Amino acid sequence: MDSSRSNWVTIGAGLLIGIGLGIFLLAAFGIGRNYLLGWADSGQLEIRGPAVNKLTPDFKLVTLKGDQLGTQDVRGHPVLINFWATWCGPCQIEMPYIEEAYEIFGPELVVLAVNIDEPVDKVQAFVDDLGLNFDILLDTGSKVQDLYRVTAFPTTYLVDRDGIVKVQHVGTLTRSQLFSYLEQVGLSE
Question: Is 172:92 a contact under the CB 8 Å cutoff?
Fold first, then answer.
């Protein structure tokens, strides 16, 4: 076998091994489990967290500013809980829509943007770059992510004034989706 053909065989074998290993890791560690198992009937990914029309699980985290803030502290307000990460491209896409909603409806609307276990300086740089003004919560150790059974980013919950989950959304929010969901918790433009 000539060296050119040998190189192509080696490259092809390496690609197959790499793809197989990638699929295994995605399935084994849940990073892409929903993509591998298929889409839910609603067109969104399978949702495994708190159920719609049920009380949201309580949590309290440290904010980027160093304060303690949690779900009990914001009862009486519509709340948007968003699980995100700085490396998440879809999170970057939807953040300006969340900021716009916050600017329109704040302080009535409370946004709890839960960052998943990233260094504070990286989170602060992301917030500064996008000009975000809502509360950023730091989920050190991913305890709240586990409590809400978040398996994909971004994941968003909209909660009414009584603490009842009204919307669960996995994946990127469009502006129209977000504002439609806000109507479900009593806010409209």
Answer: no
DSSP state of 52: T
pTM for the whole structure: 0.76
At residue 77's C-alpha, the angle toward residues 73 and 78, to 5°, is 120
Question: What is the rounded distance in angstroms from the CA atom of residue 140 to the CA atom of residue 147?
Answer: 13
Tokens representing 64? 């980027």
DSSP annotation string for 123-175? HHHHHHHHT--SEEEEEGGGHHHHHTT--SSSEEEEE-TTSBEEEEEESPPPH
Per-residue pLDDT of the chain (189 residues; tens, 9 = 90+): 566 666 666 676 666 566 655 554 444 444 443 333 333 333 444 556 788 999 999 999 999 999 999 999 999 999 999 999 999 999 999 999 999 999 999 899 999 999 999 999 999 999 999 999 999 999 999 999 999 999 999 999 999 999 999 999 999 999 999 999 999 999 988
What are residue 158's DSSP bridge partners?
A: 80, 167
Q: Which of 94, 35, 129, 161 is nearest to 113 (CA)?
A: 94
Contact indicator for 157, 167 with CB cutoff of 8 Å = yes
Determine the Cα–Cα distance for residues 66 and 138; give it in Å rounded to an integer: 9
